[in-house]
């Protein structure tokens, strides 16, 4: 037996997506998240059904899309999320790839580029950096949609908020069998750090 | 009750006075309403570099200090963009260059009986019916060399200190009268030592600004101050905080 390296990163649908303007086929309205499975698109309400983001397996990079249905976009991934490579060319947009747990023991892949979703991720980043421990993942929900204006147009960015931190559910674990539902346990909140004491230094009281 | 007492302001600092003079709209939001503009990548890069320099001067290995500095930076900017990557990339060479300049000074001295890593200094500004401490924290104190060093990391090393940095230096110099106060500017490629600004002259100008601040505070409550202070949306002080400005001032 031998393996063929197809170049795939081993991830597959269903796909989780944000739609700023809605889909042309009318299945998805504007400013909503949806799940795409084959040709089927189902609106996913992240406001009432929070999702878990696999921030430990997240990738960022640049995406070039020809905008042709059925043609996969080209991705150039960064070596790490801590470093962004220079833009390969003007055709490329910043984007990311992250697995999300969507409930019922199921996971989907959120792989998307564009100003709206990138803004969503970077706005959330300071909260994600507060990960209480390795293996703990954020549960996020949609709290707002923000309009973004540019010289050449506009878009809408989802605003996500961390609800709580939970242990990695089985559906986001490496090699997990699909369809195994695990209710993640709520994480203990990190204890607040004591404020540093001010130095009780003997001060020279110079006047001016 | 003077203007500072009226608003519960117990002390000033060089950055506080500079902000009042350069961006009173940001000052009102920050010091009267307690809303701070977030620290950007460049400022955080400076903190990480300073940590690594101090750690190495105190005896840690340079490699470990730089590694810790990069980890600290990454923790803050979990998801990089071009701007944060640019700042991250200068951490290592800037630390190395700063150490080349500072290594001859030996170990800096820090307050032994305090959790605060830096020595606090204070001088007092006095006016008609008011006085207020102007405080600061010293980056590196080398008593054996009679020198205080403030480390400024930058992407462009200046040949002359800005008026804002001159005020900071002069406050330190007034407080540490018998020591030289030098600012070391370091980029990834270049370092330069500067000690510009006449102490008496600079503090005299600062006092004029403090007097105006005290008067401003004495005649206005904080809501009135917010309502009348000119708002400059083009000021670089609002860079990265545009939404905060719109939320606070509606401009």
In short:
The complex is a heterodimer of chains A (about 210) and B (about 250). With about 210 residues, chain A is mainly beta. Helix content of chain A is about 5%, strand content about 40%.
* β-strand number of chain B: 7
**Helix/strand-derived class of chain A?**
mainly beta
Query: What's the number of extended β-strand segments of chain A?
Result: 11
Helicity of chain A, in percent? under 10%
Estimate what percentage of residues of chain A fall within beta strands.
35-45%
Q: Helix count of chain A, per DSSP?
A: 1
Mean pLDDT of chain A: 83
Task: Pick out the low-confidence regions of chain A.
Answer: 1-11, 176-204
Separate helix tally of chain B = 10
Task: State the helicity of chain B in percent bands.
Answer: 40-55%
Shape of chain A: globular
Distance between the termini of chain A: 85 Å
Strand fraction of chain B equals 15-25%
Q: Specify the biggest β-sheet of chain B.
A: 4 strands, mixed
- In quaternary terms, these chains amount to heterodimer
Secondary structure class of chain B reads alpha/beta
SSE blueprint:
The complex is a heterodimer of chains A (208) and B (251).
Chain A: E1 15-19, E2 32-37, E3 40-44, E4 51-53, E5 59-64, E6 74-77, E7 93-103, E8 106-113, H1 115-128, E9 136-150, E10 153-167, E11 206-207
Antiparallel strand pairs in A: 1-2, 2-3, 4-7, 4-9, 5-6, 5-7, 7-8, 9-10
Chain B: H1 3-6, E1 12-13, H2 14-22, H3 24-32, H4 41-57, H5 62-76, H6 82-102, E2 119-127, E3 130-138, E4 140-142, E5 147-153, H7 163-175, E6 180-186, E7 191-194, H8 199-219, H9 222-228, H10 242-249
Parallel strand pairs in B: 1-3, 5-6
Antiparallel strand pairs in B: 2-3, 4-5, 6-7
Helix pairs in contact in B: 2-3, 4-5, 4-6, 5-6, 7-8
Key structural traits:
heterodimer; A: 208 residues; mainly beta; seven-stranded antiparallel β-sheet; three-stranded antiparallel β-sheet; 1 helix; 11 strands; globular; disordered N terminus; B: 251 residues; alpha/beta; four-stranded mixed β-sheet; three-stranded mixed β-sheet; 10 helices; 7 strands; 49% helix; 16% strand
